[in-house]
Design brief:
Order of helices and strands: EHHEEEEEHEHEHEEEEE
Largest sheet: 6 strands, antiparallel
Shape: globular
Strand content: 25-35%
Strand order of the largest sheet: 1-13-10-9-2-6
Oligomer: single chain
Structural class: alpha+beta
Distance between the termini: 13 Å
Number of strands: 13
């Protein structure tokens, strides 16, 4: 990502306890959002670009109105550093979850339901749509990102000081870390979940990444050569 104020790739790898804290904090602060318009989504590796670029930008998108509103992330690869990250989506093809693969918070504790958030993250294995990636152009992306940043509902930008919830409408990850996610057995894609950083002053929204195996499970702990190994989870926002 260049030598000028580079992203610190090693800080993006976190463990399950950290991932849980971020996701739980998002639910506690935005329960209606998580339940009704989006807690996360699934993106397949099948048709993502394999290239020598070093970063993956994930833009926050808000689509629709009222009962048909969706919050999701759409990603694009780039070779960027912190000094030239574009708030307006750059040219290119963006990968977003198919609308059927946007994940919303389930109810917890009832018969046949997940007992709590930890149970959900460990056991969630919904088989996602085979046509899992939604491809978006820059012209389609711009109004979706604008909808998030203008935030007419006052969900994310209504802070004191203003914009303290999410000043920049994206998170960024090092592609070398996605390689570590993929190097965990048969990994077919990833799920992202929204997180919230209580300690952050300006950009509190976080993106939490889990690898997804061919059984559509989040890879939290996996076995290789008979040994149990901690799964690789990623976290980042801007910066």
């Amino acid at each position: 990502m260049g030598n000028n104020n580079p992203i610190q790739c090693n800080t993006q790898i976190i463990d399950f306890d950290e991932a849980y804290i971020y996701i739980d904090a998002f639910i506690q602060n935005f329960n209606d959002v998580a339940t009704n318009i989006g807690l996360g989504g699934y993106i397949s590796f099948a048709d993502l670009n394999e290239n020598s670029l070093s970063g993956r930008l994930g833009y926050y998108c808000l689509e629709g109105t009222n009962d048909d509103m969706r919050l999701f992330v759409s990603s694009i690869d780039g070779d960027l550093n912190l000094n030239d990250l574009p708030v307006t989506p750059p040219d290119g093809t963006y990968f977003a979850p198919h609308t059927n693969n946007i994940i919303k918070k389930p109810t917890f504790g009832g018969p046949g339901e997940y007992s709590n958030l930890i149970d959900f993250l460990i056991k969630y294995n919904v088989v996602h749509s085979p046509n899992s990636n939604r491809l978006l152009s820059k012209s389609e992306m711009v109004p979706l990102v604008d909808s998030f940043t203008s935030d007419s509902s006052g969900i994310f930008q209504n802070g004191n000081p203003p914009e303290h919830i999410c000043k920049k409408p994206f998170g960024i990850f090092c592609l070398e870390n996605f390689d570590k996610v993929k190097d965990q057995g048969t990994i077919i894609g990833y799920r992202y979940f929204f997180g919230f950083d209580e300690a952050e002053k300006v950009n509190k929204l976080r993106l939490i990444i889990f690898g997804v195996n061919d059984q559509f499970e989040n890879v939290i702990v996996y076995e290789r050569m008979g040994s149990s190994i901690k799964g690789v989870m990623l976290e980042h926002s801007y910066p």
